[in-house]
């Protein structure tokens, strides 16, 4: 039984998925399984993954019988996982620190009251060039005081306890949680244990130019407001978080029409740092 199960969902992710897989192989910690769930891709991503799976039995490849969407795909991986801990990576991101798994496992092993731990991130463009980097809020107290105002975790940086995630129902498959299913899970996990972020830049988060202004962002911000209302009694700072969420929604309504990409990167950096 592996110590950690790494869940990698993909949908037509053949362009960068090999980079993501290679970054997993560069980890110092070796007791893992990599579960790749293909959500009915049509771009040949299966050939890339199966080539690696034939060489290493730690890679498990499954393909959905139809396109299920990210929420159900993530839960399929969660239910398949054999590890005590769950780590996440996306098909267009990569882990930059070879000690990432080792350090997060050590943290959770020595802090049994914690259920979730993330890291900071290096933001890169489509060519792999660094744009900027940021650290997420470190302590449980700080996270609880901030989490209604912003998502304090970068999804592909996290590691969490599988039993705790299953206990709170895993990733929400409700329409109101679409594109914020990770945020919803962190808010639920905070109800059963403590949370933290290591102050390390352990991942490279690829910012694709199309994704910055995608229509999904508006739904993400709208559904984020609904989560703030839903969890208002479990965390402090509801009014501040609610107000900030609406400002973010209106600001993005303007932001997505800015034609200059470098200016978008700059504004996105400010938003992440604050």
Automatic annotation (TrEMBL):
Transmembrane segments: 249-268
Endoplasmic reticulum keyword on record: no
A UniProt-annotated Pfam family: Glycos_transf_2
UniProt cross-references to SUPFAM superfamilies, sorted A to Z: Nucleotide-diphospho-sugar transferases (SSF53448)
Molecular function as annotated in GO: hexosyltransferase activity
Keywords: Membrane, Transmembrane, Transmembrane helix
UniProt keyword annotation of Transmembrane present: yes
Annotated InterPro entries: Glyco_trans_2-like, Nucleotide-diphossugar_trans
All copies of domain Glycosyltransferase 2-like, residue ranges: 5-164
UniProt name for this protein: Glycosyltransferase 2-like domain-containing protein
Organism the protein comes from: Candidatus Brennerbacteria bacterium CG11_big_fil_rev_8_21_14_0_20_43_10
């Amino acid at each position: 039984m592996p110590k950690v199960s790494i869940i990698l969902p993909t949908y037509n992710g053949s362009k960068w998925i090999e980079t993501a897989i290679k970054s997993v192989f560069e980890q110092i910690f070796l007791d893992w399984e990599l579960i790749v769930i293909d959500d009915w891709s049509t771009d040949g991503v299966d050939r890339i993954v199966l080539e690696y799976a034939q060489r290493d039995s730690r890679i498990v490849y499954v393909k959905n019988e139809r396109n299920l969407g990210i929420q159900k795909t993530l839960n399929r991986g969660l239910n398949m996982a054999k590890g005590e801990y769950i780590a996440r990576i996306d098909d267009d991101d990569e882990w930059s620190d070879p000690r990432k798994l080792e350090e997060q496992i050590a943290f959770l092993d020595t802090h049994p009251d914690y259920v979730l731990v993330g890291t900071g991130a290096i933001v890169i463009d489509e060519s792999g060039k660094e744009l900027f980097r940021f650290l997420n809020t470190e302590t449980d107290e700080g996270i609880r005081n901030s989490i209604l105002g912003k998502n304090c975790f970068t999804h592909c940086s996290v590691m969490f306890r599988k039993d705790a995630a299953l206990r709170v129902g895993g990733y929400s498959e409700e329409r109101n949680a679409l594109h914020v299913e990770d945020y919803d899970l962190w808010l639920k996990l905070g109800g059963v244990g403590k949370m933290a972020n290591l102050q390390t830049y352990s991942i490279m988060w690829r910012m694709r130019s199309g994704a910055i202004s995608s229509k999904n962002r508006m739904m993400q911000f709208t559904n984020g407001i609904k989560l703030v209302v839903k969890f208002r009694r479990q965390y402090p700072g509801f009014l501040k978080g609610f107000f900030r969420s609406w400002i973010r929604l209106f600001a993005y309504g303007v932001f997505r029409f800015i034609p200059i990409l470098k200016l978008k990167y700059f504004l996105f950096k400010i938003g992440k740092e604050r």
